[in-house]
Structures are given as C-alpha cells and as structure tokens.
Specification:
By secondary structure, the protein is mostly helical. Helix content is 88%, strand content 0%. The chain is flat and about 40 Å long.
C-alpha cells in the first residue's frame, strides 16, 4: 500500500543532504559556486515543469514525488563526487 506521508518524508530527508552539499558549494563561491547556483535554478524550473506536465496528463502525485526523489538522488551523487 502506498503511503504518501512516508514518500514525502523520505523526500524531505534526502533533500536535506543535497541542500547541505549545495550550500557548501555556494559558500565556496568562485566559478563552481556560480555554476551551481545557475544549475540549481535551472533544475528547479525543469522539475516544476515536469511535475506540472505529469499532473496535467493525469499522473498521480505519487509519480511526481517519485520523480523528485530521482532528481534528488542524482544531485546527491553528483555533488558528493565533487566533495
């Protein structure tokens, strides 16, 4: 059985780590910091558009949360590799 609270809670926990990694990269500044700030805004716009499209085409909120978790996992891996 699907538990929306659990999926949302896991997304929040997973996002916390990515937020921390991004803040460190932004705090260091320089070229990497600027690139991270730009990619962060771009990724958020794309993710919001993707979520809107999924819902408009009859997708479920569960599908949106699952996709956001995929984005978060990718960013966690990418940002951890550079650490």
């Amino acid at each position: 059985m699907y538990n929306p609270f659990l999926s949302s809670f896991m997304l929040a926990i997973e996002s916390r780590d990515v937020i921390e990694l991004r803040l460190v990269r932004l705090a260091w500044g320089g070229r990497e910091g600027r690139a991270e700030a730009q990619s962060m805004v771009t990724e958020k716009m794309h993710a919001a558009g993707e979520a809107m499209t999924t819902l408009m085409l009859g997708g479920s909120p569960e599908a949106v949360i699952a996709r956001y978790r995929e984005h978060v996992a990718f960013n966690a891996k990418r940002l951890s590799a550079g650490a």
